[in-house]
Write a structure and sequence with these properties.
The chain is α/β, with parallel strands linked by helices and 258 residues long. Helix content is 31%, strand content 20%. The N and C termini lie far apart (79 Å).
Length: 258
């Protein structure tokens, strides 16, 4: 039966960033949106702790996608969002991290706008910020790097290509999302373009969560270290950065050599 447009006012779709996983890192605005939602359509990487803060009346719908694995198509996700919103429900599209960073936000916004719906965007803490905080480092540092790259390990066509020559320069820093399966490809491209094999690469698994794990490697050892670590959770590769405690441990040895 068609919905009576005059009886059920349409609510704007809220695209909300869930942050990296720790519920204490949710913004106040995100928390309010979740508590008031009728429907939360969430990504696979949104933590159970964050899904636990939704109101008791809220329906949860999983719209998870997995790189190189079984996934709900983007068309199906768009349709799910639009169909729920057209009932007059308060819909939250909940994305891990920040919805504007590798979150397919534009495609979903296009679908919402085409359906005549309004929207709001609630930014979240992107995983790179949580990962670098776990290392005790910063993404930018005077005398080292005046820019930082947020890049993806794969895209719709497969392994993603980048300006490897620029990234291989001394002092470059990048947070590489969705890079576990692309690690050997990334290593090969960077070495081919002159990056030193000793360049630090740190893997942060489950950044900000209770089961967070930090694995140190170099560009030369990256694929082997990843295989040995058997990382199964969401992970970021922090290229050009080592954990602060590892750097401080190495400093006395470096000073002795000078």
């Amino acid at each position: 039966m068609p919905r009576d447009l005059h009886m059920t006012p349409l609510q704007p779709v809220a695209f909300v960033g869930a942050g990296p996983g720790d519920p204490d890192l949710l913004t106040v605005k995100a928390l309010r949106a979740l508590e008031c939602a009728d429907v939360v359509i969430h990504d696979r990487l949104v933590s159970a702790e964050i899904l636990g803060v939704v109101g008791p009346q809220t329906r949860l719908r999983n719209a998870g996608k997995e790189g190189f694995g079984p996934s709900l198509s983007q068309v199906a996700i768009n349709q799910m969002i639009v169909e729920e919103a057209l009932t007059g429900a308060r819909v939250v599209r909940l994305k891990s991290g920040d919805p504007t960073v590798f979150g397919r936000l534009d495609e979903e916004l296009d679908a919402v706008i085409a359906a005549g719906l309004d929207y709001t965007i609630v930014p979240g803490l992107t995983s790179a910020s949580a990962a670098v905080a776990a290392l005790g480092q910063s993404l930018t540092k005077r005398g080292r790097n005046t820019a930082v790259r947020l890049i993806t390990g794969h895209d719709m066509q497969g392994y993603a290509d980048h300006d490897w020559r620029a990234l291989a320069r001394d002092g470059e820093v990048a947070a590489i999302y969705m890079a576990k399966k692309a690690a050997r490809f990334i290593q090969g491209r960077l070495l081919m373009h002159g990056a030193p094999p000793s360049t630090p690469v740190t893997i942060v698994e489950n950044a900000s969560r209770a089961d967070q794990r930090i694995v140190s490697a170099t560009l030369a050892t990256l694929p082997a270290i990843l295989a040995e670590a058997d990382i199964t959770g969401p992970a970021l590769l922090m290229y050009g950065l080592a954990p602060r405690d590892a750097v401080e441990t190495a400093l006395p040895h470096i000073q002795e050599m000078i």
